[in-house]
Design a protein that fits this description.
- By secondary structure, the chain is of the alpha/beta class.
- The strands form six sheets. Strands 14-15-16-13-12-18-19 form a seven-stranded mixed β-sheet, with helices on both faces. Strands 9-8-7-10-11-21 form a six-stranded mixed β-sheet, with helices on both faces.
- Helix 1 packs across helix 7.
- The protein is built from 15 helices and 22 strands.
- Bound molecules: adenosine-5'-diphosphate.
- Adenosine-5'-diphosphate (ADP) binds next to helix 7 and helix 8.
- The site of adenosine-5'-diphosphate has 15 residues, from helix 7 and helix 8.
């Protein structure tokens, strides 16, 4: 760990103002403090804005829209590419900001920059591929076209677990499509978003195309969702807030993309390669300290592999450490806040009271630290099978047959990601088809990619991010029928 813990090379990237219509607006009487989840010290602040400033941001986005939408896609793509380059150039500083405000290990923060930035690169190219269609006319003398046009002003609301990536995977396709945006990052991690916007400005994003407001979530959300000017909401966060925002969007008939809670199952079948299954489970569970919507929340192991799988996991998890994210020897950093620690503790205690054994880790050591922990012999109806733990707690549940494993995986109202490990082709075909999730990982715990469609079914939401599907979310199809030819 360097002596200058959390210092930025370019101190300007620690921004405490919001961006509205190309103007950086300073704070007001009661700014929001941003703290470091490890030291618990405040190290930054952002303005506490509300409805009036959000209206101003919507107007700025609306004013910027016609010119931005009319620019050749190739030019919009070129700006995204310059932005991508600047993010590359400031990778260390952005990762430092993420570790400071979110707590995750610096290695994971750097991984997030690379992952988040891959969306900038992908959509820089994809901008030019918003292709339309020429439809063979059923009536002579007519030309039928399906054109694609930008949806308009978009509201983007993002969570704290991936402060850069959750934003870049919305901003990049939105701008590529020709939309302008008003972003509301999480009040827990707004600083990465502001630094990201600064680099966008430097890359040549015109005033008003990207606006960032921080402050009171309900007031900002209310202004964004009730506006007729805003034609789309893209939200990543919890299911209850997603449902609320969808309801709020209904009155103005906005398009919505909602990426919500996951409660992902991970299933190790008897014929899985043990090493592959253990690696996949650890990645799916402990990536981002378990604070990911696609984190394996319930780990099911078939009886034939169960004991070997659990003892291999116990060895690996027992060797993991928790502590300062800036100390590279730590596997995981602190979790986001005290509420998160309390939830993890209550899930662990409830499972143990229901008969589970703790084979590695254990109670939280204090502060916002939560130890990488393994529970085995967890009851099928434990609280942690119904709610997302969102922390470094791995819980293994035994099962008998392939059919039971699939049924247990599907036993939830959520359907974001699901993982399973097996070497049997018939089981692969069957489980991949029968998993009620928007994404399936087979023999891997790492599935996210800018090139692939990320998104859920059931209570995990609507819409996709990444790939050409992610661009479609920001495009309307306009049917043009020309007669008299
Ligand atoms: P998490 O559990 O990840 O914090 P939330 O759904 O609470 O998930 O938060 C995700 C994002 O939604 C954050 O930016 C938060 O400020 C915002 N948010 C929370 N409640 C509302 C609301 N009522 N209206 C608009 N945004 C909201």
């Amino acid at each position: 760990m360097s002596q200058q813990r959390g210092q930025l090379n370019e101190t300007d990237l620690l921004e405490s103002r919001c961006l509205i219509g190309g103007t950086w607006l300073g704070g007001n009487a009661a700014p929001i403090a941003v703290d470091d989840p490890f030291t618990l010290e405040d190290f930054g602040q952002v303005p506490n804005l509300g409805e009036a400033e959000t209206q101003a941001a919507i107007e700025a986005a609306s004013e910027a829209l016609p010119t931005w939408a009319a620019r050749p896609a190739r030019e919009r793509g070129a700006i995204l590419r310059r932005w991508w380059e600047l993010i590359e150039l400031h990778r260390d500083d952005l990762a430092t900001l993420i570790t400071r405000e979110n707590g995750k290990s610096i290695r994971e923060a750097q991984g997030e920059i690379d992952y988040g930035n891959s969306y900038m690169e992908f959509y820089a190219d994809e901008a030019t591929r918003a292709l339309g269609e020429i439809i063979p006319s059923p009536i002579p003398g007519r030309r039928l076209l399906a054109e694609r046009e930008p949806v308009g002003v978009c509201a983007l609301i993002t969570p704290w677990n991936f402060p850069l990536a959750m934003l870049s995977r919305k901003v990049a396709p939105a701008l590529a499509a020709g939309c302008t945006v008003v972003c509301k990052p999480s009040e827990l991690t707004p600083l990465t978003a502001l630094a990201f916007a600064k680099l966008g400005e430097e890359a040549g994003v015109p005033p008003g195309v990207v606006n960032i407001v921080t402050g009171e979530a309900r007031a900002i959300g209310g202004a964004l969702t009730s506006s007729m000017t805003v034609r789309k909401l893209s939200f990543t966060g919890s299911t209850p807030v997603g449902v609320l925002l969808a309801e709020q969007c209904a009155a103005t008939m906005k398009r919505t993309s909602l990426e919500l809670g996951g409660n992902a199952p991970f299933v190790a079948f008897d014929d899985a390669d043990l090493e592959v299954a253990v690696d996949a489970a650890l990645t799916a569970k402990f990536r981002n300290g378990g604070q990911s919507c696609i984190a394996a929340n319930r780990i099911y192991a078939q009886k034939g592999i169960h004991d070997r799988f659990v003892s291999a996991l116990a060895e690996k998890i027992g060797a993991m450490t928790v502590g300062d994210g800036f100390d590279e020897s730590n596997t995981v950093g602190p979790v986001i806040d005290e509420r998160a620690v309390a939830k993890i503790d209550s899930h662990r205690e409830e499972a143990i009271a229901g008969g589970a054994q703790c084979l590695a880790g254990g109670p939280s050591p204090g502060g916002r630290l939560s130890r990488p922990t393994l529970l085995a012999g967890v009851a099928k109806d434990a609280q942690l099978t119904r709610e997302e733990t969102f922390g470094p707690l791995a819980a293994v549940i035994a099962f008998d047959t392939v059919e039971e494993g699939i049924a247990l995986a599907n036993n939830t109202p959520f359907g974001l990601a699901g993982y399973f490990c097996t070497s049997d082709q018939a089981t692969i075909a069957k489980a991949a088809r029968q998993f009620q999730t928007g994404m399936v990982g087979i023999n891997t715990g790492l599935i996210s990619s800018a090139h692939a469609p990320f998104g859920g079914v059931k209570m995990s939401g609507l819409g996709k991010e990444g790939s050409h599907h992610g661009l479609e979310e920001y495009l309307n199809v306009k049917y043009v029928c020309q007669a008299g030819l």
